[in-house]
Amino acid sequence: MRVVIIEDEKPNATRLKHIIAEISPEIAVVAVLDTIAESVDWFKQHMHPDVVLMDIRLADGLSFDIFSRTTLQCPVIFTTAYDEYAIRAFKVNSIDYLLKPIEKDDLQQALERVSTPQTYKMPAEPVQQLLDFFKQQDVSYRTRFLLPYRDGYKTVLVEDIDFVYSAFKTAHLALKDRTEETVTQTMDELEEQFNPSLFFRANRQHLISIHSIGSIHNYFNGKLKIILKRDPEREVLISKEKAPAFKQWLDK
Questions:
Q1: Exposure letters 123-160 (e unless 16+ CB within 10 A, then b)
Q2: How many Cβ atoms from other residues are within 10 Å of residue 167's Cβ?
Q3: Among 21-30, 51-60, 123-132, where is mean pLDDT lowest?
Q4: Hey, which of 8, 68, 165, 201 has its CA 20 to 30 A from 238?
Q5: For residue 97, which of 135, 126, 120, 73 has the smallest C-alpha distance?
Q6: Which 8-state DSSP code applies to residue 102?
């Protein structure tokens, strides 16, 4: 079986590759792609695999857009970090999915369920329904944190967060008053919980608020360098692949 992985977070892609290797040495990962544009180009130039493992949210948009730009002649298993309401949508439309973090048994069962006839074509109607679902849903984003404080608790509002950074596998909330708070959530979890119109995942270490940006500069190899208003010495770089999505996020 030939597999293509579409995933913009390298740790997640690496984890998938390791799990696939454990499932069977006969399963070959023929490509790992991390953007819509790269995926479309790849499918236009290569023989299609037996199955695609496709993340929903990529650096340059929702992966559903791939289907409007090319025809996939193979089954697709979506991977997602979205919660239960999204999972119900997948079930209704009969499209396989895996909920992150992906486990070996779940992936093995999904691969066993996938049929691989040469004439397979992803139905357009269910894909469009899913695309509309994710674009139109009324999402409730996190507005506050309840954190331990002395012998009790205190509340931190999301609107008071300037940016979030990761250090030693721990997420830290940098507040607008220049204080910091540590939280138990991972960066991936916080990215899903924060309103994407107000916060952008610049890289693995930083999730920045639209209000935290002081200036934006071109950097080496197509990267962008962000200077933060309240922490100008901090280096926040956006990759060449993620730069278009960042510019689109700003231009709303």
A1: eeeebeebbebbeeeeeeeeeebeeeeeeeeeebebeb
A2: 9
A3: 123-132
A4: 68
A5: 126
A6: P
Model pTM? Answer: 0.54
Contacts of 181 (CB under 8 A, 6+ apart): 145, 147, 156, 172, 173, 175
CA 117 to chain centre: 29
Those residues whose C-beta lies under 8 Å from the C-beta of residue 94, and which sit 6 or more positions away, are 126
Report the top-level CATH class of 144-250. Answer: mainly beta
The pLDDT of 214-219, averaged and rounded, is: 96
Question: Between the CA of residue 227 and those of 25, 28, 74, 158, what are the distances in Å?
Answer: 46, 42, 43, 21
The dihedrals phi and psi of 184, each to the nearest 5 degrees, come to -85, -15
Per-domain boundaries in the chain:
2-136, 144-250
Residue 32: beta bridge partners? Answer: 5
Strand partners, 130: none
Q: Which residues pair with 147 in a beta bridge?
A: 154
- Percent of the chain, pLDDT > 70? 83
**What distance in Å separates the CA atoms of residue 136 and residue 134, rounded to the nearest whole number?**
6
Return the CATH class of domain 2-136: alpha beta
Q: Determine the 3-state secondary structure of 90 from DSSP.
A: helix
pLDDT, tens digit (0-9, with 9 covering 90-100), for 125-161: 556 666 666 655 556 789 999 999 999 999 999 999 9
Start-end of H helices in 137-236: 187-193
| Cα Rg of the chain (Å, integer) | 20
Place of tokens 């025809």: 71
